């Protein structure tokens, strides 16, 4: 079955980007209009962010976000179905690649951090392809949370391991794989805005509201010879492709979990502000994981 699904995705992935995005917009609105809970969460998260200052701009941002979320879902067909070389041709520009080269020149392992913003999978495939084709090839290991729908996992991994890419599940064994990769001065990608499980996070503000935030990325950043680099894949106009933005972490992590959780969320917020309509506002970012005490409510 997995081979059949991979073959189907490979065929569909060669549809024009504009066609997939158009279908994605329709899908995005279908889900939004048919799921009151989904729609309410998206509206609530957007309002919480404060990125739209009045009712008119809130409605505009909501419409854009609904469409962008659907586009992102259909673009996964490309991210998982095409070769990294083919995907790289969709990236029309990459800003600040020199940050990556400077870290590699200093013989550092790199933790690439990207939230669910724009198309993180296509941007990740671009990084993987560009790193592996350097004169001194560097491998990229993508850390991922196994999906609830098990049939998706072979599709995800089939796309991510093409042309030298690596994957590691977000498990204890996967963390050991990532640590080994960083010690070898290779690179990894971590998505910092997924809600971690009990014991793997701290409460930290995210757009002014407590969100249970991973401690893994800041902890790995304390390893010797490791640098943290931020990036995301901005979606350009309809069918025009993508642009990869790369940035340094403004302040290094300290080793204090609470402080670093806040720093991590601040870094994510800064990326989101560059393309707010392209963030995955439908995600239940503020949920309380099983077994975790709720965030303390500040005294009035």
Structure, explained:
- The chain has 300 residues and is an alpha/beta fold.
- The protein has a domain at 84-278.
- 47% of the residues lie in helices and 17% in strands.
- The chain has eleven helices and nine strands.
- It has helices at residues 2-12, 17-34, 36-49, 55-81, 84-88, 97-105, 120-132, 152-160, 172-183, 216-221, 257-272, and strands spanning 91-95, 109-113, 140-144, 166-169, 187-190, 201-206, 209-214, 226-235, 242-248.
- The strands form two sheets. A seven-stranded mixed sheet has the order 1-9-8-2-5-3-4, with helices on both faces. A two-stranded antiparallel ribbon has the order 6-7.
- A hairpin with a 6-residue loop joins strand 8 and strand 9.
- The longest helix is centred in the first third of the chain and has 27 residues, at 55-81.
- It is globular, with a radius of gyration of 19 Å.
Task: Write a concise keyword list for the protein shown above.
single chain, 300 residues, alpha/beta, seven-stranded mixed beta sheet, two-stranded antiparallel sheet, 11 helices, 47% helix, cell inner membrane
Distance from N terminus to C terminus (CA atoms, Å) equals 56 Å
User: What is the number of helical segments per DSSP (H or I, 4+ residues)?
Assistant: 11
Shape: globular
Q: State the major sheet.
A: 7 strands, mixed
Give the gist of this structure:
One of its GO terms (biological process) is glycolipid biosynthetic process. This protein has helices at 2-12, 17-34, 36-49, 55-81, 84-88, 97-105, 120-132, 152-160, 172-183, 216-221, 257-272; strands at residues 91-95, 109-113, 140-144, 166-169, 187-190, 201-206, 209-214, 226-235, 242-248.
